[in-house]
């Protein structure tokens, strides 16, 4: 056995970019619940260096010499932030991804797992959407900057594999939520945005204001479930082609139903009102998890109601430190 092996298994230094965010914090918790003796995780935040900057990225990679990378760092935001900043989402994410993937190649990283999203799929499409359909048409106009930057990760993964034999792959999560999310009222995603609004509505004895028609459909995954699936992909998934990490199609819900679950978790007494002057965004992006189910047929997702109640409890207990 050489110095890079522990009891027959290879030592892994796993660098997690974006380790301070919603998904990164969940991976921190999931790996504590399911540890491996040969794995050392390093969780980065933007304080460790700006990954838009090639020199800063190179310094980070030379310092930690990772064998594996989970690449989460990104400019991330909800519908209304994307609509205002398509250029920033495009440029910032292209820069971050190129720096992370190229330094992974230069340093001989054995495996990179990056993160796409089901919102990068074509807007005009048949349903359910699967992994083969990423590049089959333009994304929804509300978030085209983020979408094209994310789609390029898949292009780069195949190019690094073809030209240099690199094992770079990606996961495609659906809408994620949980502790450590961005609870900003205007820039965050729908669940953290509505949780923060419901917190205020409860204090002020007012109704919960839900943007749009409440009719769009979404599949939501609890961050801890996503984190467990990330660890499976890191440890066992060998394809370059990406894999959708989503709850089942039967778990798809309307925004109105999710808003009601949040109102119920806060025991709001003044109900919900819809602000139909606000955009609905993409109507639906129903994704198939058939490929995932092929690998993990028995994986149990936490029921949405329970996961929302846990997130509301976290927000109430951590109001002072929550990102908002
Ligand atoms: P998040 O909570 O906003 O976290 C973003 C992370 O990226 C933070 O750790 C942040 O560091 C870091 N970061 C941002 N810009 C950076 C930069 N220029 N240099 C270095 N680090 C930077 O996001 P998330 O929701 O966990 O998303 C993680 C991944 O999942 C992203 O790739 C996202 O596209 C993908 N995803 C998210 C969702 C969702 O619903 N949230 C759905 C599908 C896919 P600081 O904490 O220091 O700012
Ligand atoms: P998306 O799934 O990428 O479109 O992003 P979001 O998580 O921002 O979800 C957007 C959907 O939720 C749209 O149909 C919005 O109209 C609806 N929505 C309702 N209230 C809110 C809110 O307070 N914040 C956000 N971000 N979306 C809301």
From TrEMBL:
GO biological process terms, semicolon-separated? 'de novo' GDP-L-fucose biosynthetic process
Which key words tag this protein in UniProt?
Isomerase, NADP, Oxidoreductase
GO terms, molecular function: GDP-L-fucose synthase activity; isomerase activity
Highest taxon, organism lineage: Eukaryota
EC numbers on record: 1.1.1.271
Renumbered to this chain, the signal peptide range is none
Q: In which pathway does it act?
A: Nucleotide-sugar biosynthesis; GDP-L-fucose biosynthesis via de novo pathway; GDP-L-fucose from GDP-alpha-D-mannose: step 2/2
Annotated InterPro entries: Epimerase_deHydtase, GDP_fucose/colitose_synth, NAD(P)-bd_dom_sf
Residues folding into a coiled coil are none
NAD-dependent epimerase/dehydratase domain span: 14-241
Keyword Electron transport applies? no
- The answer on whether this UniProt entry bears the keyword ATP-binding reads no
What family, per the record? Belongs to the NAD(P)-dependent epimerase/dehydratase family. Fucose synthase subfamily.
Q: Tell me, in a sentence or two, what this protein's role is.
A: Catalyzes the two-step NADP-dependent conversion of GDP-4-dehydro-6-deoxy-D-mannose to GDP-fucose, involving an epimerase and a reductase reaction.
Q: What is this protein called?
A: GDP-L-fucose synthase
